């Protein structure tokens, strides 16, 4: 007998006897099964290590079910999904940054200029999907599909939904990053009264079939993992990049999540003066990222400097004791309240506009950027 055949027999012997043992342990306390004569015969065959008899009796007692392979794969799929959902709910959850309110620390959906004369095959063929897979960047050239007039509709994803309405109805959606129309990629109320494309086209203007509306690179915002367990072992701290639910917070879109940096903790009193955050009469300089924002430094050599902390300058958003419209406005937090500010202070719609974040709304701390892979910000978030 060859070694290969001997190996197969040993494996079969181990599998069959193991299956017999599991079956007896599983059903031995069930009278309907254990009282069967075949069950007693299986016990005897297992004791005598009679592989062929065990196999025959197992087929009688535990007949193969139809579509057994499919059932097994279904079981594996259900268990895998359950584990993934539990992992997402209690440990780490993926999150995409839609806007530029945390720039330059983290980037949301934004645009980059592109010279059509310098495009490569990575931008104009099916290979652009490969480029996007690694860099999150894809060249787009949006043209009017027919004669009509231009429409813009803001979304909550850091884009504008651009369409053309004409005699043929409404065109398909053309998603362009917010910074194309506003010149900034944050989520703060824009100071521009009438958004317009770089070529001067505005809402309601006529366009002709084939006319280039906008062309450039659309860059997907950073994808990161939200650490949902860390705050179970320590209290939230100033400087944490926090993800929180907007539900119940007035003046915010309900049922979504925001990402900002935690700048104020429970029972603190603070204000903004000269671009600095003043907490309980002192200027916090920790952790390092807070100090860099306070000092208007660069977080990396290739990035532009932070703008410091600025008052909102929006009197129509003033809530006494809760918002910071002008320098010197004082905020006093309650015992379960936190203050959230974007690192991109000039373009962030944050607590300076709408007030504090209740502790019950906190969801987790930003852990690390995992996509795009080719990304200066890839890795742990500070």
Walkthrough of the structure:
- The protein is α+β, with helices and mostly antiparallel strands and 382 residues long.
- The longest helix has 25 residues.
- It is extended, with a radius of gyration of 31 Å.
- The chain has three domains: 59 residues; 110 residues, no CATH class; 157 residues, Ribbon (Umud Fragment, subunit A).
- Strands 1, 10, 11, 12, 16, 17, 18 and 19 form an eight-stranded antiparallel β-sheet that branches.
- α1 crosses α3, α1 crosses α4 and α3 packs antiparallel against α4.
**Secondary structure category:** alpha+beta
String of helices and strands = HHHHHEEHHEEEEEHEEEEEEEHEEHEEE
Examine the coordinates and then state which fold CATH places here, giving the name of the CATH topology of the largest domain: Umud Fragment, subunit A
CATH class of the largest domain: Mainly Beta
Essential attributes:
382 residues; alpha+beta; Umud Fragment, subunit A; five-stranded antiparallel sheet
Q: How does the SSE layout of this entry go?
A:
Layout: H1 3-27, H2 31-34, H3 37-47, H4 51-61, H5 68-90, E1 92-96, E2 110-112, H6 121-124, H7 128-135, E3 137-143, E4 148-154, E5 159-166, E6 169-170, E7 174-177, H8 178-182, E8 206-207, E9 212-219, E10 223-227, E11 241-245, E12 257-264, E13 269-273, E14 276-279, H9 288-294, E15 331-332, E16 337-341, H10 351-354, E17 357-358, E18 362-371, E19 379-380
Antiparallel strand pairs: 1-10, 2-9, 3-9, 4-5, 4-8, 5-6, 5-7, 10-18, 11-12, 11-18, 12-16, 13-14, 13-15, 16-17, 18-19
Helix pairs in contact: 1-3, 1-4, 3-4
């Amino acid at each position: 007998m060859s070694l290969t055949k001997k190996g197969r027999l040993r494996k079969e012997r181990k599998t069959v006897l193991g299956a017999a043992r599991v079956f007896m342990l599983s059903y031995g306390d069930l009278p309907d099964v254990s009282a069967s004569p075949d069950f007693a015969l299986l016990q005897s065959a297992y004791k005598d290590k009679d592989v062929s008899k065990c196999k025959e009796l197992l087929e009688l007692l535990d007949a193969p079910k139809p579509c057994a392979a499919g059932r097994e794969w279904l079981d594996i799929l259900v268990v895998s999904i359950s584990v993934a959902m539990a992992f997402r709910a209690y440990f780490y959850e993926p999150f995409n940054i839609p806007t530029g309110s945390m720039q330059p620390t983290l980037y949301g959906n934004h645009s980059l200029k592109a010279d059509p004369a310098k495009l490569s095959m990575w931008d104009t063929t099916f290979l652009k999907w490969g480029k996007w897979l690694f860099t999150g960047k894809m060249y787009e050239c949006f043209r009017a599909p027919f004669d009509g007039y231009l429409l813009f509709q803001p979304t909550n994803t850091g884009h504008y939904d651009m369409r053309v309405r004409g005699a043929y109805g409404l065109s398909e959606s053309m998603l362009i990053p917010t910074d194309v129309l506003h010149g900034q990629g944050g989520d703060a109320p824009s100071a521009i009264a009438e958004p317009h494309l770089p070529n001067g086209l505005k809402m309601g203007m006529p366009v002709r079939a084939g006319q280039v509306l906008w062309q450039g690179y659309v860059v997907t915002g950073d994808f990161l993992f939200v650490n949902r367990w860390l705050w179970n072992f320590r209290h939230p701290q100033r400087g944490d990049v926090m993800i929180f639910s907007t539900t119940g917070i007035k003046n915010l879109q309900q049922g979504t999540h925001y990402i900002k940096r935690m700048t104020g903790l429970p029972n603190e009193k603070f204000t903004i003066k000269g671009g600095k955050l003043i907490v309980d009469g002192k200027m916090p300089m920790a952790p390092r990222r807070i100090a860099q924002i306070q000092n208007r430094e660069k977080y990396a050599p290739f990035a532009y400097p932070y703008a410091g902390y600025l008052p909102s300058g929006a009197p129509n958003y003033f809530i006494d004791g809760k918002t910071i419209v002008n320098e010197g406005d004082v905020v006093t937090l309650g015992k379960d309240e936190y203050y959230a500010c974007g690192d991109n202070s000039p373009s962030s719609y944050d607590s300076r506009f709408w007030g504090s974040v209740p502790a019950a709304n906190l969801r987790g701390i930003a852990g690390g950027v995992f996509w795009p892979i080719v990304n200066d910000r890839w890795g742990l978030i500070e």
